[in-house]
Amino acid sequence: MKAVWRVGRPVAVRDVVKDLNSSRSEPLAYTTVMTVMSRLAAKDVLSRHKVGRGYVYEANAPDAAGIAVKDVLRAHGDAAVAHFVDQARGDPALLRRLRRLLSEADG
User: Fold this and answer.
1) Global pTM?
2) Hey, which end of the chain has fewer CB within 10 Å, N or C?
């Protein structure tokens, strides 16, 4: 995921392989990286779009925390949001931060 985030745009498997292998003594196989990226697309961590005969991939969240939040919301929906709000009510600093973030999102 770091390789995909680093590029910041839709990326082909070959570009990720090149990036990953640039810092490895034992290179990863193209098919290994392709399989992992395909599985991440199946889990909705990456989006996959056909370009020519191949695919490009892009992250569906800006970082690992974003992936975790999407997973929790997908698995638990409104119950997760309700628990988060309950936690924020009990923590004044978190509640202030949440209000500020919501205000920035609206404005």
Assistant:
1) 0.78
2) C
